[in-house]
Amino acid sequence: MIVAFSVTPLGVGEDVGEYVADAVRVVRESGLPNRTDAMFTSIEGEWDEVMDVVRRAVAVVEARAPRVSLVLKADIRPGVTDGLTSKVETVERHLGS
């Protein structure tokens, strides 16, 4: 499964980069395939391991912020691996046609 999620601290002002970096650090240290862009962090793995990483990423932000917003989108396709790469490659292939 692939989960794209965004953790946003609320009540800490406009500059939230430091808080977001804490959450992304949790994801990167998990060892699961992941990518971060301007809006979301995507992570790939089995349900329990991915959701545990999301939970821990939220917890690290929650420890420093009075309120946390979580946006999460999941692509649940049993048996598919390397979706983070293959989905993008498919789109790029079609763009090149």
UniProtKB/TrEMBL annotation:
Domain Thiamine-binding protein, residue spans: 3-92
Cited Gene3D superfamilies: 3.30.70.930
Pfam families from the UniProt entry: Thiamine_BP
Residue ranges crossing the lipid bilayer per the database entry: none
One Gene Ontology CC term in the entry: cytosol
Signal peptide: none
Entry similarity comment: Belongs to the UPF0045 family.
Protein name as annotated: MTH1187 family thiamine-binding protein
